[in-house]
């Protein structure tokens, strides 16, 4: 059932000297507003190109974008996908199509469009790649969370 579509993701890494925690903190911050007086009509043209768009348009798959502190602050937290795969290094991606959210399987860390992953879990009951069984749990805010069955706490006294 999985579609195996190419995801519109561009991998990036924080610049040398920026820890994972600092990078996540910078991404969560909102960028400072531009200095423009409210009574003026101003057209601002940024001459620097977006390195993510440049990398997304490239034909080759090599290389990742290196982001400094200023670039990390400009990123929207909703467009960033973080894949934590302990003990391996954390991977950072920018979703170039944020209207199509991306989800990571908690067991194998395979990336899917959220809709495709949910359809796979509902119809087959497991991840389409690793076949790890998953169960649906309702959290306090009624957001659906999918987790591997062995992570569920089952009260056997009832």
Automatic annotation (TrEMBL):
GO terms for biological process: intraciliary retrograde transport; non-motile cilium assembly; protein localization to cilium. The lineage of its organism: Eukaryota, Metazoa, Ecdysozoa, Arthropoda, Hexapoda. InterPro entries: Ift122/121. Signal peptide: none annotated. It comes from Leptidea sinapis. PANTHER family: LD29485P, WD REPEAT DOMAIN-RELATED. This is Uncharacterized protein. Keywords: Repeat, WD repeat. GO terms for cellular component: intraciliary transport particle A; non-motile cilium.
């Amino acid at each position: 059932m999985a579609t195996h579509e190419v995801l519109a993701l561009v991998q990036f890494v924080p610049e040398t000297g920026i820890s994972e925690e600092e990078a996540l903190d910078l991404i969560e911050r909102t960028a400072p507003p531009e200095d423009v007086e409210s009574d003026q009509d101003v057209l601002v043209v940024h001459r620097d190109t977006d390195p993510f768009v440049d990398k997304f348009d490239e034909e080759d798959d090599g290389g990742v974008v290196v982001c400094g502190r200023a670039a990390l602050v400009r990123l929207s937290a909703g467009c960033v996908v973080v894949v934590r795969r302990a003990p391996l290094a954390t991977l950072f991606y920018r979703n170039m199509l944020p209207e199509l959210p991306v989800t990571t399987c908690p067991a194998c860390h395979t990336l899917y469009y959220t809709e495709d992953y949910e359809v796979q879990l509902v119809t087959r009951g497991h991840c389409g790649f690793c076949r790890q069984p998953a169960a649906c749990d309702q959290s306090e805010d009624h957001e659906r969370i999918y987790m591997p069955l062995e992570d569920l706490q089952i009260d056997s006294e009832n």
